[in-house]
Amino acid sequence: MIAITLLETPYGSLMKVTNLDDVHPLVRRRLADLGIMQGSVISLRKAMPFGGPCTIEVKGQWIAIRRKDAGRIVVEAC
């Protein structure tokens, strides 16, 4: 499997989180509170222009996160 960042994935494709080590510990904790941890299945839904936030979907819930943080989440295809 090829590991890429969440920002490099096509919109709407299901991806499995493989590594969150580069994400800041406080952000990692908040993501875990929302159900995003290693092994979670997520998909990139939207990325706002001009470096704005990204919207991801996890278990039917849409969450907006900073583009910087989305670029540090390593995923692979399911």
Automatic annotation (TrEMBL):
Keyword terms, alphabetized: Iron
InterPro entries xref list: Fe-transptr_FeoA-like (IPR007167), FeoA (IPR052713), FeoA_core_dom (IPR038157), Transcriptional_repressor_C (IPR008988)
Domain Ferrous iron transporter FeoA-like positions: 4-77
Pfam families: FeoA
Span of the signal peptide: none
Protein name: Ferrous iron transport protein A
Phylogenetic placement of the source organism: Bacteria, Bacillati, Bacillota, Bacilli, Bacillales
